[in-house]
Each structure stands twice: as C-alpha cells, then as structure tokens.
C-alpha cells in the first residue's frame, strides 16, 4: 500500500501497456507522461498529476491492465 504522501497513477481503462516512460528513482513533473497505454489502436498517455520521484513501477510492457490498476507510484 502506498504511503499517505504517495500518489498512485492508475489506469483509467482496460488497455495494454505499450511503453513505460520512467524508471524507479526518476524525478517527474506534473503533466509528464509516465506510461503509454494502447486500447483499440489508440495511444493513451498516463500523466503525473503532480511532481515527485518514481518509487515503484507496478506494470511491465505488454501487461493488460484494468480500470483502476496501479501503474506507477510517486513519492
């Protein structure tokens, strides 16, 4: 479970993980793409809602994610 100050970036739909744009330890800013999803031949960027440091990546390229699945955790 994420710490209270952590932010979990979650999938908003059923999709395939196309690319992971960050690595653990990377610093991201609000609006940065952290994961690129693909659904019905459309690419959907999952964006950081705020700045922070990537503390965990919960998916791998090729995974099928469901609505609400945690993709990346920021601290």
UniProtKB/TrEMBL annotation:
Domain Lipoyl-binding: from-to ranges: 1-75
Alphabetic keyword roster: Biotin
Pfam short name (any one): Biotin_lipoyl
Domain of life: Bacteria
PANTHER family recorded: OXALOACETATE DECARBOXYLASE ALPHA CHAIN (PTHR45266)
Protein name: Biotin carboxyl carrier protein
Species per Swiss-Prot/TrEMBL record: Nocardioides cavernae
